Amino acid sequence: EAQVTQNPRYLITVTGKKLTVTCSQNMNHEYMSWYRQDPGLGLRQIYYSMNVEVTDKGDVPEGYKVSRKEKRNFPLILESPSPNQTSLYFCASSPRMGASEKLFFGSGTQLSVL
Amino acid sequence: GENVEQHPSTLSVQEGDSAVIKCTYSDSASNYFPWYKQELGKRPQLIIDIRSNVGEKKDQRIAVTLNKTAKHFSLHITETQPEDSAVYFCAANPTGGGADGLTFGKGTHLIIQP
Q1: At the N or C end, where does chain A have fewer CB atoms within 10 A?
Q2: Is B43 helix (H, G, I), strand (E, B) or coil?
Q3: Which of A41, A56, A59 faces B99 most closely, judged by CB atoms?
Q4: Per-residue pLDDT of chain B in tens (114 residues, 90 and over written 9)
């Protein structure tokens, strides 16, 4: 089944403890992206990747890192999480963003930083 | 960068009535305008999209209209049903097919009253 898989689904952590949220897609998509969703603010892009080893900042990149060593995986890394990073995170992919195509979203990761 | 404004933030309609959600965008180079529906606790999913070379697109009970001159686009849902209750997000591709990805509106919570 074609899908974007995120793990974990829920995560509670403490300030400063490094964490990684994994994202994997099995559709051979070139484009992958991370969004955070906060009440009243909608979906805001954190980082995106046009292809392997190509990543760039979105609208709210501060406090986050990403890597794209392989086409299928695009992990989101929080080196030193802070409470303002408590949010619902979505990974998404599409065949080629330059062609303005449908985004396929993962099921989301609800992160709480205490 | 692109700025997408979405109104209203909450919309309550009687079952069977029509619902209209409106969005404006700032980047005249944008050429792709999708709408995503997010049911409670679920991931956003594409329901309809429109490209800048057409003014209207319909798919059963939903339609999207685009006014490039005024830089606004709207989602129309007719004969609303309980399953239409969700948060709806509009989006625009800010660089007209470039690498930046989608900029989303802040969302509209559509409530269908029985």
Answers
A1: N
A2: coil
A3: A56
A4: 788 999 999 999 999 999 999 999 998 888 899 999 999 999 999 999 998 888 999 999 999 999 999 999 999 999 999 999 999 999 998 764 455 678 899 999 999 999
